[in-house]
Amino acid sequence: MKNKTLDVLVKAKDKLINIEVNSGYYNSLDYRNSVYIFEKYTEVFKAGDKYSNKIDVIQINFTSGLPKDAPVIDECQYGNLKTGKVKVKNLISYEYNLDKIKEMCYNGNKKYNYIAALDFEQKDLEKYCKGDEYMERFEKEVNKLNTDIEFTEFLSAEEDNERLKNTLIYEAEEKGKAEGMIEGKTEGILTVARNMLGLNMNIEDIMKVTGLTEKEILALKENNG
Question: Which of the four pLDDT bands, split at 50, 70 and 90, describes residue 92?
Answer without folding.
Answer: very high
